Amino acid sequence: MATVRQTVPEVITIEESDDIARVTEQLQAAKSVVIGPGLALGERTERLADAALASGKPMVIDADALNCLAARLDRRGAVGEERIALLNAWLSPDTVLTPHKKELSRLLGLSMSDLTEQWMDVLHKLQTSARFITVMKDACTAVAASEGIYLNQSGNSGMAVGGSGDVLAGITGALLCTMAPMDAVCAAVYLHGCLGDAAAKSLGRHGMMASDMIAAMKDVLA
Prior knowledge:
The chain is of the alpha/beta class. It has helices spanning 2-7, 21-29, 43-55, 63-76, 81-90, 101-108, 112-117, 119-129, 164-176, 181-203, 210-215, 217-220; strands at residues 33-35, 59-61, 95-97, 133-136, 142-145, 148-151.
């Protein structure tokens, strides 16, 4: 926590302790929630995930919070469409899942080869069966929701770096504060790609970092 305060002084932090009451209080004051980046699998993440889901806030679930959900589904022995049905029971319609393909394969109980070969069929299944929104991060990031399927055309290969997905999660969480969920998600995915394109234009694709996308935001939104 001290490292976060020193490197990002603008961030307001709270300490997470065994008593989850303080975190729950802060969640109730929030307009939206992003959970997953920077966490690890374990009881702490389970507690935070439970508190976040109980808050009822518009929410982005990413990284190890997604793996936490996948582990719960595995413990239930859920397979096939039963996994989506359980996620529907646990998640509200304004919940956004932002997995890369490996995380999505774990979540849905699919092999990577099956997901790679049948990715559009998987998106159609999520569109027709899931009450939540799924953002599948890939070379062409895709959004699946009951409103339809959106294939994003902004972005470039230089964005395939650690932290890029965290930037997307943060943008999505911010836009969920003021926009309808599907509008917020599609705008966030497109903006995220535009930031990557702006960073690549000024710095090149090789060696691009997630922080370069954040730095590009002022110019992109100007």
